[in-house]
Amino acid sequence: MRIKNKTPRQKRKIRIRKKIYGTPDTPRVAVFKSNKNIYAQAINDIEGKTIAEASSLNQKFNGDSTTAIVAKEVGLLLGEELNTSGVSRIVFDRGGYVYHGQVKALAEGIREKGIKF
Hints:
With 117 residues, the protein is an alpha+beta fold. The chain has a single domain, classed as Nucleotidyltransferase, domain 5. The chain has helices at 8-19, 68-84, 102-112, and strands at residues 28-33, 38-44, 49-55, 91-93. A hairpin with a 4-residue loop joins strand 2 (38-44) and strand 3. The relative contact order is 0.20.
């Protein structure tokens, strides 16, 4: 698909992805939002493996899964998983989304668990 046929978010995502990558020591945390849920995963781009993941599909979040409060809880879950896997630094990939609202709340939740960006 030619780049002129892509949406503005897809163009931003491609532009950002060219500049950042994850390593085993500092994985890339990729964010995806749908209309109903928010997802985040820590990726080691060198090996192509997911180190940790969290989403609002977890049984803990019954029903209301689109607010910034739930996004912060997802960030706390991901931060906890990263701590257990021994990761202390990450590269945050907002996936072309504006750093506001749910994306910002998710990042703050990760930071509260002691993970540095």
